[in-house]
Amino acid sequence: MTDEKPVAIGQHIVVLDRGFVYVGDVIEYTDRIEIQNAKNIRRWGTEKGLGQLVDGPRPNTKLDPCGTVKAYRSAVMHMLPCRGF
Questions:
Q1: How much is the average pLDDT of 11-18?
Q2: Phi and psi of 8, rounded to 5°?
Q3: N or C: which end of the chain has fewer CB within 10 A?
């Protein structure tokens, strides 16, 4: 049994290994993260990159709901705090 305490860090865009990009409410654990209320960002719909989505989706952004995503920390390339999804 572990005394691991999960830490909720709020809504983030999460870029995973192999190019998967999700947005949702992130919970951090020691060796993994969990993205709750996750949506796969299938199409960014931006002109100037992923950073344009930190204030929410653009008109051409395509999102696919996918429940809860769990990933090992080693698969996380980077995370961007965001809001409005």
A1: 97
A2: -80, 125
A3: N
Burial classification of residue 7, based on how many CB atoms lie within 10 Å of its CB (0-12 exposed, 13-18 middle, 19 or more buried): exposed
| CA 72 from centre of chain | 13
Identify whether the C-beta of residue 58 lies closer than 8 Å to the C-beta of residue 41: no
Q: In the chain, what are the domains?
A: 7-81 (2.30.30.100)
Overall pTM surpassing 0.90 (yes/no): yes
pLDDT in tens, 26-73: 999 999 999 999 999 999 999 999 999 999 999 999 999 999 999 999
Q: Which tokens sit at 2?
A: 């572990």
Q: Which of 60, 67, 70 is nearest to 31 (CA)?
A: 70
What is the rounded distance in angstroms from the CA atom of residue 6 to the CA atom of residue 54? 24
- Residue 76 above 60 pLDDT? yes
Residue with tokens 């909720």: 8
